[in-house]
Design a protein that fits this description.
The chain has one domain. Helix 3 crosses helix 8, helix 5 packs parallel to helix 9 and helix 12 packs across helix 13. By secondary structure, it is an all-alpha fold.
């Protein structure tokens, strides 16, 4: 009696016909091409979530202090800047305790700095994964950005404690902090996509990152108020997107007023224009990442 099973060679041929082959190529600049890439990214949302959680767990695995490290970094920086700019030398009057003034700005800045530093090396750090299996490569830098949000949330409780200690009143304008963080997340994602793709070809990006962030921080009103910048320089100074983000984050939380929509609008404009451009650049670079890395 003849067997109903297919011969091995015919079975392999049937499997080959059903197997989907993914060809990684640079997308077109057409809007529909961008939407297709975003749709493909959405289909891998489970992987994005799983890897983001993995980043948080690995970061604090076998650590005695665990998530406390998310609090220690801005706290230690706050103590250093308080000693330098409140005890040793004086910054212009900020009309509030300098410790809470600085910590409120260090919160978004530390999120930006940590996310950008980790995401920039995301592709290179995971080179074995990139060369062996297909998934949208932007997932790797995105997971580092999302994992940094965890540190931001943890540190926010310390800011709340400082505000209670120094009796800083809270108003409903504090709710503006959420869209400001969303703008910051969009901006850091855009910069991370550009730098992570460029880092694959030019490793100088990762080497220069600490110096660039240090200079960038002092070009942002983190340890001093925006009012300390001379008026003749402010039109150029506020073109730094982090100025509007950091200044308005501190403004809505500590001063209890609404944001300055002019400086915040500049940040929104930069984030809104840079994010789609950065994503397209990343997807074009993605086609050769596995060959170069």
């Amino acid at each position: 009696m003849a067997s109903s099973a297919l011969p091995t060679d015919r079975l392999d041929l049937a499997h080959e016909k059903r197997r989907k082959v993914k060809v990684i190529g640079a997308p077109t600049f057409a809007p529909l091409g961008l939407f297709r890439q975003l749709s493909n990214l959405w289909s891998y949302r489970d992987l994005l979530y799983t890897l983001s959680v993995h980043r948080v767990r690995v970061r604090y695995k076998q650590s005695l202090l665990g998530a406390t490290w998310a609090v220690l970094q801005p706290l230690i920086l706050m103590a250093i800047y308080w000693l330098l700019f409140s005890v040793i030398t004086k910054v212009p009057d900020v009309n509030m305790p300098y410790a809470v003034f600085t910590f409120a700005a260090l919160l978004p800045w530390t999120y930006f700095s940590n996310a950008l530093t980790a995401a920039t090396g995301g592709l290179v750090t995971n080179s074995q994964l990139v060369t062996k299996v297909y998934f949208p490569r932007e997932i790797l830098p995105l997971t580092y950005v999302f994992a940094s949000i965890f540190d931001l949330v943890v540190s926010s409780f310390v800011l709340a404690a400082l505000m209670i200690f120094y009796r800083v009143p809270v108003t409903f304008n504090l709710l503006y902090a959420f869209p400001i963080i969303l703008i910051l997340t969009s901006f850091v994602t855009a910069v991370a996509l550009v730098f992570s793709a460029t880092q694959v070809r030019f490793r100088d990006v990762g080497v220069a990152m600490p110096l660039m962030l240090q200079v960038w921080m002092f070009a942002t009103p983190v340890v001093y108020p925006l009012s300390a910048v001379p008026a003749r320089f402010q039109p150029f100074y506020i073109l730094n997107p982090m100025v509007g983000i950091v200044e308005n984050f501190r403004r809505v939380i500590l001063l209890g007023t609404g944001p300055d929509f002019y400086t915040l609008g500049i940040s929104v404009l930069f984030a809104g224009l840079l994010l789609p451009a950065a994503y397209l650049y990343f997807k074009h670079a993605e086609a050769t990442v596995a060959d170069i890395i």
